[in-house]
Specification:
single chain; alpha+beta; HIT family, subunit A; five-stranded antiparallel beta sheet; binds guanosine-5'-monophosphate; binds zinc ion; catalytic activity; HIT-like; Histidine_triad_HIT; Histidine triad (HIT) family protein; HIT-like_sf
């Protein structure tokens, strides 16, 4: 499949991988927007948040969030706080069409988002 993140999962394209289990992979963003900026992706290709199916995908999406919290704790900024973001389609700013959770930490973030 012609998908950048599937290729990272398959080790066809290198990435700085920080966590892996049977269901998810986490790696450092190539263009970090915070001292720590990781992407957490399901190993199964799901193009957008609109494509999540009730039958079969809900536990996987929960696992993305659970992994973000675990990595935030490992990185030492769980208590200070952090930002998780999932962008969907054009207006949401999605550029890679394989769902991913951004985990950003190590600085204070503003709200609302731009
Ligand atoms: P989106 O804009 O779809 O929410 O996020 C895509 C993210 O993927 C961006 O933050 C971008 O910096 C990151 N990215 C794009 N290409 C690569 C790559 O080849 N390797 C890594 N590690 N990150 C990438
Ligand atoms: Zn993919």
């Amino acid at each position: 499949m012609d998908c950048l993140f599937c290729k990272i999962i398959e080790r066809e394209i290198p990435a700085d991988i920080v966590y892996e289990d049977d269901h998810v992979l986490a790696f450092n963003d190539i263009n970090p927007q915070a001292p720590t900026h990781m992407l957490i992706v399901p190993k199964r290709h799901i193009a957008t948040l609109n494509d999540i199916e009730e039958e079969g995908d809900l536990a996987l999406v929960g696992r993305l969030q659970f992994t973000a919290a675990k990595l935030a704790a490992e990185q030492g900024f769980a208590e200070d706080g952090y930002r998780v973001v999932m962008n969907c389609n054009d207006h949401g700013g999605q550029t890679v069409y394989h769902i991913h959770m951004h985990l950003m930490g190590g600085r204070r973030f503003t709200w609302p988002a731009g």
